[in-house]
């Protein structure tokens, strides 16, 4: 099997805590919200209540574009459990806003993914109301 379109990737529910609640609540609405340090303007990934760059706790949230490019990827062809018999892409996507996020590339032939490829966020619903942000070719 060479593409994820033939079989949908599982969407396991994330663990939500006080640091990530704003992020996950937004995904349920189809929005990619990111934290940004109000002191040094660094866009933060993974969501947290302090800036890893300057240590400030003055953090705000903004809606990201959802656009990015594939920075690096691998194709996994030997999954286990719910991922058995799936070929799927695990990738770092560099968002337009700067951070690189670990995610999946979906809705394409896995053999056609390439470094530098433009991608756009899509959201896959989970059983706890949140949605997993994944990316498809733009």
Task: Tell me what the structure shows.
With 138 residues, the protein is mainly beta. The protein has a single domain, classed as OB fold (Dihydrolipoamide Acetyltransferase, E2P) (Beta Barrel). The strands form two sheets. It has a five-stranded antiparallel sheet. A two-stranded antiparallel ribbon has the order 1-2.
Give the SSE layout.
Layout: H1 21-28, E1 33-37, E2 59-63, E3 67-76, E4 88-95, E5 100-105, E6 118-125, E7 131-137
In short:
The chain has one helix at residues 21-28, and strands spanning 33-37, 59-63, 67-76, 88-95, 100-105, 118-125, 131-137.
Derived structural class: mainly beta
Strand content: 35-45%
CATH topology: OB fold (Dihydrolipoamide Acetyltransferase, E2P)
The count of helical stretches stands at 1
* Amino- and carboxy-terminal Cα gap: 23 Å
The helix/strand order is HEEEEEEE
Rounded radius of gyration (Å): 16 Å
Name the poorly predicted regions.
1-6
Going by CATH, the architecture would be Beta Barrel
Q: What spatial order of strands do you see in the largest sheet?
A: 5-4-3-6-7
Helix-residue proportion: under 10%
What is the CATH first-level class name?
Mainly Beta
């Amino acid at each position: 099997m060479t593409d994820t379109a033939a079989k949908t990737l599982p969407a396991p529910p994330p663990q939500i805590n006080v640091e990530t609640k704003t992020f996950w609540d937004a995904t349920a609405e189809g929005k990619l919200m990111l934290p940004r340090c109000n002191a040094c303007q660094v866009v933060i990934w993974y969501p947290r209540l302090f800036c890893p760059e300057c240590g400030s706790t003055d953090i705000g949230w903004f809606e990201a574009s959802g656009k990015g490019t594939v920075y690096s990827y691998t194709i996994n062809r030997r999954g286990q459990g719910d991922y058995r018999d799936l070929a799927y892409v695990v990738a770092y996507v560099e968002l337009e806003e700067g951070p690189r996020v670990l995610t999946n590339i979906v809705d394409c032939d896995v053999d056609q993914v390439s470094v530098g490829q433009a991608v756009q966020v899509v959201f896959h619903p989970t059983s706890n109301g949140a949605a997993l942000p994944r990316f498809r070719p733009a």
